């Protein structure tokens, strides 16, 4: 496999030679903010994150406007609900250490320098976060992006640049394109990034059936292109299922492709140190590029690409969402850094589920909306997943995200409610009452997968 890694590294170096002829990226000034006293330093004296606490309830109990109830003093009435549809799997967003660190950063620096990271917004705090993320995933380097969506599109923009900048003419010839094999259930950010590559004639994209390794093997075996890439989510957000990582590693050894995974739903959750599915199986060295997000279990906002140092330079030089977006605000970066103080992540969740996502497929959009209505009426904020997040015939009975703040009592109540829902749903699926209920129900918002 070393030869494949070397091949891609050489392609990256050649592309960089054309993009950055004067080594501009290497000699960018490293922006450093004013030194603070120990009392002012937002990262000083951070307490250890050792598991759930009373602060967890801050975002567990929410209120939802009820458009049917009479208004009071001109304001819509509200119903209290338990939130079971968020991505904050570890509830880090409300931890006192996170609040304190981000508040101190705001008081000291406001939002920090406001510009693209390549101009003046990439501070020592951004670099510290990148270093710990790289270390967590056992990579040389890391690039932090404003969102998880931007992380995937920035990487794929850089990947496409390899075909363009190593082409003999203005557009890559057919044999110079990159063959990309993508799981059918990959996140929208991957899909959009691949469409961008296709539009620029940089890639030939093949989509294999969900987690179907035989189909993937056939597609790769029949592909004549030399430059091959396989990209997949490690945990599929609409299903709650893990990708067959060990099988993918075996295929990597057989076909010698560049292996890219999106750890959006497993980073910080899976593995003793929060290193995701790669850490669980001990296969970090078999994964070439790891894309992740800070917006879910990280409890903040942002994304990252963990990779080699050469790849990180290419993402900074060609990743358009990175180049042309204002860098993440300093309080967000500081808050995201706090997770580094967490103890064993598996112990923080306090529940036996292997995946933080539980998904129940009911089929039609009407059925999913009815199921969501049923749960909301019983005080549980559980939202239906509808197109375009899923296929029209594969609507989910509400995506439920499990995090450390959900007590076993709440879990038992939810199970009972779903049991009643199944019984009621079975009785009513063939009646007009179901459609009447759906038409009369006003969802507070339509849920779509976040990056």
From TrEMBL:
Pathway in which the depicted protein is active: Lipid metabolism; sphingolipid metabolism; Sphingolipid metabolism
Catalytic reaction annotation: L-serine + hexadecanoyl-CoA + H(+) = 3-oxosphinganine + CO2 + CoA
Record-level Gene Ontology MF annotations: pyridoxal phosphate binding; serine C-palmitoyltransferase activity
Alphabetical list of Gene3D superfamilies matching this protein: Aspartate Aminotransferase, domain 1, Type I PLP-dependent aspartate aminotransferase-like (Major domain)
Keyword Acetylation: no
Aminotransferase class I/classII large domain sequence ranges: 81-348
Enzyme Commission identifier(s): 2.3.1.50
Keywords: Lipid metabolism, Pyridoxal phosphate, Sphingolipid metabolism, Transferase
Recorded GO CC terms: endoplasmic reticulum membrane
Pfam family, one: Aminotran_1_2
Top enzyme class: transferase
Cofactor dependence: pyridoxal 5'-phosphate
Subcellular location: Endoplasmic reticulum membrane
Membrane topology: Single-pass membrane protein
Keyword field contains Repeat: no
GO biological process: biotin biosynthetic process; sphingolipid metabolic process
PANTHER family, alphabetized: 8-AMINO-7-OXONONANOATE SYNTHASE, CLASS II AMINOTRANSFERASE/8-AMINO-7-OXONONANOATE SYNTHASE
Family: Belongs to the class-II pyridoxal-phosphate-dependent aminotransferase family. BioF subfamily.
Name of the protein: serine C-palmitoyltransferase
Annotated source species: Spirodela intermedia
């Amino acid at each position: 496999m070393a030869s494949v890694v070397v091949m891609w590294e050489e392609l990256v170096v050649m592309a960089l030679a054309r993009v950055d002829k004067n080594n501009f990226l290497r000699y960018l000034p490293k922006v450093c903010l004013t030194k603070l006293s120990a009392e002012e330093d937002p990262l000083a004296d951070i307490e250890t994150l050792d598991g759930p606490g009373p602060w967890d309830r801050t975002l567990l109990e929410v209120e939802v406007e009820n458009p049917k109830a009479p208004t009071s003093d001109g304001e819509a009435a509200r119903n209290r609900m338990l939130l079971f549809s968020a991505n904050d799997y570890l509830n880090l967003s409300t931890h006192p250490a996170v609040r304190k660190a981000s508040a101190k950063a705001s008081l000291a620096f406001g939002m920090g320098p406001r510009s693209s990271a390549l101009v003046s917004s990439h501070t020592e705090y951004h670099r510290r976060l990148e270093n710990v993320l790289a270390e967590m995933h056992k990579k040389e380097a890391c690039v932090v992006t404003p969102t998880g969506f931007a992380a995937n599109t920035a990487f794929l923009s850089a990947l496409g640049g390899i075909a363009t900048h190593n082409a003999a003419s203005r557009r890559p010839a057919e044999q110079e394109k990159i063959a990309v094999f993508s799981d059918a259930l990959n996140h929208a950010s991957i899909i959009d990034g691949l469409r961008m590559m296709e539009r620029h004639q940089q890639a030939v994209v093949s989509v294999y059936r969900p987690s179907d390794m035989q189909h993937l093997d056939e597609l790769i075996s029949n592909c004549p292109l030399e430059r091959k890439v396989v990209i997949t989510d490690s945990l599929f957000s609409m299903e709650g299922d893990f990708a067959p990582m060990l099988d993918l590693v075996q295929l990597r050894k057989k076909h010698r492709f560049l292996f890219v995974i999106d750890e959006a739903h497993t980073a910080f959750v899976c593995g003793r140190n929060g290193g995701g599915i790669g850490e669980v199986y001990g296969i970090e060295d078999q994964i070439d590029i790891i894309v992740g997000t800070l917006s879910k279990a990280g409890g903040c906002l942002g994304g990252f690409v963990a990779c080699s140092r050469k790849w990180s330079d290419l993402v900074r030089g060609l990743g358009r969402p990175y180049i042309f977006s204002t860098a993440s605000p300093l309080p967000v970066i500081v808050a995201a850094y706090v997770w580094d103080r967490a103890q064993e992540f598996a112990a923080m969740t306090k529940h036996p589920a292997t995946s933080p996502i539980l998904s129940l497929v009911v089929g039609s959009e009407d059925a999913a909306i009815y199921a969501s209505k049923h749960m909301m009426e019983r005080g549980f904020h559980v939202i239906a997943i509808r197109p375009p997040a899923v296929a029209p015939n594969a609507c989910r009975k509400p995506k439920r995200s499990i995090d450390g703040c959900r007590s076993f009592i709440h879990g038992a109540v939810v199970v009972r409610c779903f049991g009643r829902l199944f019984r009621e749903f079975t009785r009513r699926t063939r009646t007009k009452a179901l459609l009447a209920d759906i038409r009369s129900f006003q969802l507070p918002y339509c849920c779509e997968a976040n990056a």
